[in-house]
Amino acid sequence: MRGEAIWRTIYLYPLAVSFVVTGTVWSWLYNPTSGFEALFHGLGWTSFKFGWTSDRNLAIYLIVITGIWQSSGFAMALFLAGLRSVEQDLIKAAQIDGASMFRIYRRIIIPTIRPIFIAVMVVLLQFAIKTFDLVLALTNGGPGISTTVPAIYVYDLMFQRGQIAEGAAAAVMILLALAVVLVPYSLWTVWRRNRGVAHG
Amino acid sequence: MASVAIGYDPFATSGTWRRSRAKVGIYAVLTLFAAWYLLPLVVVILNSFRPLPEIAANGLIGFPHGFQLNAWVRAWSQYCIGGTCAGVSPNFFNSLMLTIPATVISTAIGCINGYVLSKWRFRGSEFLFGAMTLGVFMPGQMVLLPWAFILGHIGVSNSIAGLTLIHCVQGLSFTTLFCRNYYVSVPDDLIKAARIDGAGFWRIFRKIILPLSPPILIVTIIWQFTGIWNDFLYAIVFSSGRNQPITAAIIALGTAGQNVREFDVTSAAVLIGALPPLLIYFFGGRYFVRGLTQGAIK
After folding, report:
1. Which residues of A touch B255 (CB under 8 A)?
2. Helix axes B125-137, B89-119, angle to 10 degrees
3. Residue spans per domain, chain B
4. Whole-structure pTM value
5. d(CA B40, CA B46)
6. Preferred mutation among A21, A66, A72, A120 to probe B, highest tally of B CBs within 10 A
7. Residues B131-179: tens digit of each pLDDT
8. H-only helix segments in A85-138
9. B40, A25: Cβ pair inside 8 Å?
10. How far apart are CA B287 and CA B289, in angstroms?
11. In this structure, are residues A119 and B297 in contact, taking their beta carbons and an 8 Å threshold?
12. CATH code where residue A95 lies
């Protein structure tokens, strides 16, 4: 790929930016009076509406989209490293044998990078469970409580309403949610390592 | 820079026409995504130089007609956040005063931890390592109460010193994990030979481990600096007012109830807050990515 370094730099830079900055800037862009809606109104499309920030059912998807904007680079970096580790000779051999690109992907590339798939999913899942600053900067948990994620809920209980005990209990609930993801993953990692040892 | 490392051509089996069409398609998708990733950065940079009346009239997304540097000056030293009108510069320096020592200390201790846990194993050292890496996944909310208790007891609540202490300790999980996984690949025979020659714990560390360490130390320092600079949870909980790091100040300025949103000044302030990690990323991107891959795969 020509200019790979430039593409990579563009795709990965959001990782270096804090969720606070990301959330703040995107919230301006989503805001009807300053962002996309204002842009299209200025261009003459006056019936254009972008009211997701004040829609209870849609506001959460703004967080999803912005979260993807921020962390998709992480997945890309890992997959890139994984794809580089796929053995070139295997692919060449398959091509000579007349395998289609789809078949090469299904039989060689995806099985090789499966551990990376799982690692990426686990890491991103635990980031998602812990999401805090992005939501605070983007929607502050609103409208209503429609985007009040667990981490925001804990913060609210402990430091806005002074219900320390309940907040602590809620924090443990976050830990449990993380355990649901992480315990099977660590068991799987240990199992895979042991199997590797057994096979020499 | 990076040459074409994937050495096969996915389109080698298809015809020329199909190949060039597919290439155009790929570049179109790449460009589209690049635009999506760059949009906020470009918007904020442009707005920090656009005059406010123009932003108010045309919205945030637009090509600048005028040019001004005033917003940067105001954001740095004059803008009012929560009653004090000194811009974000005090918060910026707070962040520096917090991030630099916390990065150096947590990296130094993590480096020694990694050395002990990989080369001076003892009964239960594997368990200890496992317990330490749990800290990588621990949600920040879990540790808020214990830290509030500790900071109160040693008298550093609502101070940069308190925040520095938190980041030093919380950062140990990461730095220990990185360094330990790196030192595991240093051959044990090297250490054994040095011990036979009569070298002790610190001498081996200084003469063998440290000279091998620069690659992992750079990764760890970049990772820690970015993470601590960008932290928000500890910042908002354990500091207030003049003691707040820049991330907390950005939130305060975003939610401050002004009548007219001064997007030019706030854009400049947000950029000031994002600049140090961005600079590190643009100049040390290679190491940044290496840190990501190491942290996740091992």
Report:
1. 140
2. 150
3. 16-68, 89-297
4. 0.86
5. 10
6. A21
7. 888 888 888 888 888 999 999 999 888 889 999 999 999 999 989 998 9
8. 88-96, 101-104, 110-130, 133-138
9. yes
10. 5
11. yes
12. 1.10.3720.10
Contact yes or no for A8/A83 (Cβ under 8 A): no
- Closest residue to A19, CB basis, from B30, B232, B278: B232
pLDDT at B81: 72
The Cα–Cα gap between A48 and A38 comes to 9
Determine the pLDDT at residue B259: 43
Q: Which residue range(s) make up the domain with A77?
A: 4-114
Distance separating alpha carbons of residues B267 and B43, to the nearest angstrom: 9
pLDDT at residue B9 is higher than 70: no
| Cβ separation B12–A28 shorter than 8 A | no
Q: Contact at 8 Å (CB) between B275 and B45?
A: no
| Pairs of residues, one from chain A and one from chain B, whose beta carbons lie less than 8 Å apart | 188
Query: Does the residue A123 lie in any domain?
Result: no
Is pLDDT above 60 for B2? no
Buried b (16+ CB within 10 A) or exposed e, B255-289: eeeeeebbbbbbbbbbbbbbebbbebbeebbebbb
B92 in Cβ contact with B273 (< 8 Å): yes
How far is the C-alpha of B227 from the C-alpha of B128, rounded, in Å? Answer: 24
Which CATH superfamily is B89-297 part of? Answer: MetI-like (1.10.3720.10)
Q: Is the pLDDT of residue B35 over 60?
A: yes
CB-based contact B39 A81, cutoff 8 Å: no
- Which chain A residues touch B138 with a CB distance below 8 Å? 175
Q: Residue A198: inside a domain, yes or no? A: no
Q: B247 and A133: CB-CB below 8 Å?
A: yes
